[in-house]
Amino acid sequence: MKIAVEFEECLKDSPRFRATIEEVEGDVCELESKLDKLVKLCIGMIDAGKAYNTANKQFVNGIRELAQQSTKDEVIESSLTKFAESLTEMINYHTILFDQAQRSIKTQLQTFVKEDLRKFKESKKHFDKVSEEKEAALARNAQAPRNKQHEVEEATNILTATRKCFRHIVLDYVLQINVLQSKRRSEILKSMLTFMYAHLTFFHQGYDLFSELQPLMKQLGGQLDQLVVDAAKDKRDMEQKHSTIQQKDFSNDDTKLEYNVDAEKGIAMEGYLFKRASNAFKTWNRRWFSIQNNQLVYQKKFKDNPTVVVEDLRLCTVKHCEDVERRFCFEVVSPTKSCMMQADSEKLRQAWIKAVQNSIATAFRERGDEEEKLDRRASTSTGSLDSGGEPKEKPLKGESALQKVLTIPGNSCCCDCGQPDPRWASINLGITLCIQCSGIHRSLGVHFSKVRSLTLDTWEPELLKLMCGLGNQVVNGIFEARREELVSRKPQPGDPRQDIEAYIKAKYVERRFVRRPSDEELRTKVVSLSKQEKRLSSSNEHLPPRPPPPTPKLRPASNASGKSVRSADSGIQNSADGSREMLADTPSINSPADTDPPEAPPMAMPAVLPPASPCREPVFYEPKDCSAGLQLYWAAGARSLPDMAEALAHGAPVNWVNAEDQKRTPLIMAVQGGSLVTCEFLLQNAANVNQQDAQGRAPLHHATILGHTGQVCLFLKRGANQNAADMEEKTPLSMAVEAANADIVTLLRLAKMNEEMREAEGYSPAGDETYQDIFQDFTQMASNDPELLNRYEQYNTPRPGP
Question: What DSSP line would sit under 359-409, residue for residue?
């Protein structure tokens, strides 16, 4: 290694040494300047590279967006996606290159400048200082007078010390110079070599990347020539088609609209129509209408969501309109609204009317095919909750419900206007309606009428029995009793809608045609219903006793006058001396022969079980003040739907409370009567399923005590609170467990579990499918085969003693 400055030469401190030092110091200063400039240029290069990468990334993102926009062209999408991926890899390689440049050039050279050159500068400062001190010592030593010995000695000692210090400093300075000259070579070459290797790696990676991409590029290059040829051919074809269409005659274009049921996307017909708005100004707006998926919809712009005019074309009718000022108008009428539209010509109007009619027919045909498939599937499926393995009966729907309801007297025509073949019903009134009257009933509100389709909706068994237990003839006998006295003519199918609407409001909202009974007639009615309820209760005395329900908490009941008193749950009329009073069996004049059989009692219990406490048997007492609420109360116990409907028409509160009978309600009385249909009728007319009596018992408590499984199922479906406790702090579940009623325990626990799961896991309000299936099975058995629910014997057979 060549030494920049000789160590022996530095001790002499000759002019040659000083010249060499000066040359080295100038070289080091220039080196520092060049290195600082190189570091700054490296920083600028890195910043420019990062800016380049940022711009390159944006460019690649533009390529990706173009590829996404070209999803319909697979060649463009796949090629641009591949190119974008390759360019992204190159950007990553560029990022690595700039990182290497920062580490090799910037970091290493900056370290060399800050550390090694700083040490050199510090050594130079010490050297310059000691050089000046040496020169001063030499001058003082030379100036010392000969005759002053002490000054000579002092100058000599200072010179000796200064020379000694100078030798140490100058040797260290020369060492630092030689080390710096040697290290500068390795540091500069090392940083530059690292940077060049980074470039080598960058270009190798780019070469490998584009070598893999080269076959695709060659393939696209070969396809590009064919694409140019195809584009020129397509251009010629389109120019020819443009010329051909331009020569056609479009004067009769409106005749080419045809109804196509098999059209793409379900659009059978579409085109522009003027629509009359439903606002007060009755403005007309041009909209794009279409018939698609058995719906009539329109939209203002293509991107707008279609507005549905008719949700189901099976529910509407279409007719010409000649009573408006505009020409070519027609109207589509649904149960809830009507829509007036105008075509551009008479041919277009006829085409649209025909299209709507064909859509209605097609919709009914498709619905019939679906129901036929469902019926075939249902006929092959077997199994039920009962061990008998009988096929599971589903809720009635469509033509089955229609046929059953229309067989009731008076139901073959609309209850209000007489339109034949009705397809709608009011489930809380128990009547059938045409499509126009059903729309009017909907406008009354659900507190007056609840409308349901006989062909489109699903009908539960108890609801279907309710419809069969009333009917148009019975209801009109109540709500039109005084019609002939007040109006001369009942509305007919062709009458204006406003006339029919006024009549329906007078009939059901104002109840103008209901005949109000006199006090004596009402008293006679209540006595008759109470005797009928007594007769029904007495007819069940021969049946086996039920399992023991929870012992009721009796309140003191004494009567000094000797009038009859009754226990809380027995329902058996007792006189003061303990004898049972029997009443005559006088049926109600309006009660049907057999509208709804009571739930069958359970099988006989083994003799080893505790004796069954008697179930409540409602007791008749001579009322002081009769009311419609009292009529509803006894009619519910007597299972007479016509008398219940009459009481409600007379203004009876559906939640009327009998203060003289433990504050029981008509719904509790319906539970005691054992009829599922009377309970359903009261619930449909807004009866409170959770209203409690004086003992704190709701209808669910009473149904559990009496073992009426179908009623328990019905109340749970209608939102009964199974956690409510009576005055003895007993819930329906604890009562069912005590009575060992396995079916009711199962229903209550399933309902509770379903409620907890729905709250904890965010289930839908409909709940779990298994829960729904089990409740549906119980509903079917309670309505059609109540004897299947009498399974106490298999659960309550006593085990042999130890």
Answer: HHHHHHHHHHHHHHHHHHHHHH----SSTT-PPPPPPEETHHHHHHHHTST
Cβ atoms of 575 and 581 closer than 8 Å: yes
Q: Which fold has domain 567-796?
A: 1.25.40
Q: Which CATH architecture fits 260-368? A: Roll (2.30)
What average pLDDT does range 703-724 have in this prediction? 88
Q: What sections of 385-471 are H helices per DSSP?
A: 399-406, 435-444, 461-469
pLDDT at 382 over 50: no
Are the C-beta atoms of 390 and 382 separated by less than 8 Å? yes
Q: Is the per-residue pLDDT at 584 higher than 80? A: no
- Average pLDDT score over residue span 671-685: 90
- DSSP per-residue codes, 561-576: T---B--TTT---B-T
**Torsion sign, CA atoms 586, 589, 591, 597:** positive
Distance CA 242, CA 138 (A): 111
DSSP label at 347?
H
Q: Bigger pLDDT: 77 or 252?
A: 77
Question: Can you tell me the distance from the alpha carbon of 118 to that of 108, in angstroms, rounded to the nearest whole number?
Answer: 15
Nearest to 494 by CA among 411, 434, 452, 425: 434
Helical ranges in 602-640 per DSSP H: 628-637
CATH 1.20.1270.60 domain locations along the chain: 7-229
Phi, psi of 563 (to 5 degrees): -75, 160
Location of structure tokens 């058996």: 572
For residues 759 and 508, give the distance between their C-alpha atoms in angstroms, rounded to a whole number: 40
293 contacts: CB under 8 Å, gap ≥ 6:
266
Domain with CATH 1.10.220.150 in the chain: 396-509
DSSP per-residue codes, 735-797: HHHHTT-HHHHHHHHHHHHHHHHHHHHT--TT--HHHHHHHHHHHHHHHH-GGGG--HHHHHP
**Would you state the CATH architecture of domain 396-509?**
Orthogonal Bundle (1.10)
The arithmetic mean of pLDDT across residues 535-560, rounded, is: 45
Task: Report which of 115, 780, 793 is spatially closest to residue 384, judged by C-alpha positions.
Answer: 780
96 class by beta-carbon count within 10 Å (0-12 exposed, 13-18 middle, 19+ buried): middle
Long-range Cβ contacts of 104-107 (<8 Å, 24+ apart): 104/191, 104/192, 104/194, 104/195, 104/198, 105/38, 105/39, 105/42, 105/191, 105/192, 105/195, 106/39, 106/42, 106/43, 106/46
Helix (H, G, I), strand (E, B) or coil at 63: helix
CATH 2.30.29.30 spans which residues of the chain?
Answer: 260-368
Helices 497-504 and 435-444, interaxial angle, to 10°?
A: 50
pLDDT tens, position by position, 386-443: 333 333 344 555 457 778 888 888 899 999 999 988 989 999 999 999 988 988 898 8
CATH of domain 7-229: 1.20.1270.60
Alpha-carbon distance 671 to 569, whole Å? 12
pLDDT digits (tens, 9 = 90+) for 771-787: 666 666 666 666 666 66
Instruction: Taking residues 239-257, report their average pLDDT.
Output: 67
Q: What residues contact residue 207 under an 8 Å CB cut-off, 6+ apart?
A: none
Numbered ranges of CATH 1.25.40.20 in the chain: 567-796
Pairing of strands 424-426, 431-433: antiparallel
Q: In what order do the strands lie in the sheet with 267-276?
A: 307-310, 295-299, 284-292, 267-276, 338-342, 329-333, 317-321
Burial class of residue 625 (count of CB atoms within 10 Å of its CB; 0-12, 13-18, 19+): exposed
Question: Whole-angstrom Cα distance, residue 753 to residue 733?
Answer: 13
Give the residue ranges of DSSP H helices in 561-665: 628-637, 641-649
